[in-house]
Protein: histidine kinase
Amino acid sequence: MRHVPKAVATLLAVIVLLLSLGHSAYAAKLTPERDYKIPSWDMRWGAVNEDGSLDEVKDSSKIWMHIEDDTQLLRQPGNIGSAWIRIKLPSLNDETPAVLFENIYGRHITLYKDGTNFYESYRGYNYENNRILIPLKPEDSGKTLYIWTESSKNRLGIIGNVMTGDYRDLLGTLVRMDVLDIVLGSTFIFIALVLLICSFFLFRPSMAMWLSLSAIVLSIGLMIVTYSPFLYTFYRSYGKLYLQLFDVALFILLPSLAYFFEQNINSIILIRKFRKFLTAYSLFCFTMMIVNLGAQERLNDIYYFFSVVILGILLVALMILLVFASVRMALKGDHEAIILSTGFAFFAVISIGELSWFFILDGHYNMFLWKWGVFGFVLALIAILGRRLAEKHKQVVRYSRELEMFNNELQRSEKMEIISDLAASVAHEVRNPLQVTRGFLQLMSKQEDGKNKDYLHIALEELDRASAIITDFLTFAKPEFDQTKTLTILDEFKHIEGIISPMANLQGGKISLDIPQEIKVRGNSSKFKQAFINIIKNSIEALRDQGHIHVWAYVDNGEAVIHIRDNGEGMDAQTLSRLGEPYFSNKTKGTGLGMMVTFRIIETMNGKITFTSAKGVGTEATIRFPVAG
Structure:
């Protein structure tokens, strides 16, 4: 780390210092106003063979250093593993005074007062950040405390505040220092468990991503909880277990993080290869941990090198790779990638800065900002999850509407099939007797000159109407066309206009055509006319004074699109939804068969028809056919 350029080191220091302003302000709020902060103390390095005996402070050959900067540990000499700290207590005016050391680094710590050892702490594991609250007496005012601390990690001394005040107030301060870490970490663990339970109810492709996400959140929660001094201060007997949980969480985090990004950002194959390597390396570190525990931790230095130094470098490399990948996807306009890259960049910049600064200072830095980066990253993940849930909800609503539409179409198809079968079986049997009856009535009408002739004329008209209905039934039952040819839409509509214009004129309306000559479709001319005569006839019957029916057509994406719009009475939504149903009509003598046949003819020509209408405004029919050729 000595070869790191000074400019890079300075930049990282500036980043960490700027980010730590919020933490410092928060820590300042934890200090009650009536507590007294001891501004400075003295420190000297211990000898190689010192064992923490108070007689060692009488050695006049040792030089004491005056310490006023409580934000950074001194670099200790390479062959020194202990140090002495000398602190003069201020005036103690509280009924139950105490002194609180925010951070004392050391594995073995002993405090002396009045030449007597009155506090001693030894940790048989490698977590050496100690928060110590010591009760005092009012008569201890002005006395000098001697603190001996020993470490194998090259981290000795005091960082942070040394405060005196009432014991109960300082106890509350001690709890508040780290309770936020416990709450934050526990929240992440709870969220991970919820995600884990929910993942078992998902399909296999989604399950893999949710499992990786729950592993990420779970490992982050465990790391926040087990890295916090809270557990080591109040439940110190389980300290070795906390460290093992922290290492296991870190081993899980790296491959899970890579796998999650691999599933969501699949544009870089390097992520997949790096994830496989991280999985293998995490398994190797986990095996090293088991071997080290089995060897009574005699392999601590080797294990520390692989699980902290190398793993930390791999974590920085992974962060850089994932930031690059997510930013690359975000630049392509992927909204989820934008959210993910923003949250992860916030997490990665803080983590890379703190890890780099930790290695630059040879471990003489207490990392605390990374958990806020984690908080921002998890918020981004939750935002993505919420976005996906919202999208799934929209899909469910859309699928529900489509299902309702398909269900209605299925019911309509079933009705059409029943009517088709009925029409095919009945129409031929009924038509023959009707034709015979009509023939005899015509003969009778020629011989009748009296009043009965009018009755015979009415009977013939009703027989013709019955025959037309039977024809509609037959058209519906067997809409296949015996002869199909290429139809020029303009020519067909000119013929339709000639047939239907007199009826429009009687209603006080007019018909206008705006159809290009070149639009052509395949079909049967008579059936084509029959379908559109039915549509236009309905429009005519709905016209009011100065009514107008406008017919226009154009080609769109290989389809001939025909619009028929009138300014008649219009229909409400309920009536519009039932168009084409058999026996449904809003006319007095209507049977509903005309529109039913129209729908069937258009369907047989591979066309589609839709209606839009508003009451009092008019109705517009839109028909699409494949263009001929």
Remarks:
- Residues 1-29 have pLDDT under 50 and may be disordered.
- The CA atoms of residues 232 and 469 lie 92 Å apart.
- The longest helix spans residues 370-447.
- The first strand starts at residue 36 and ends at 37.
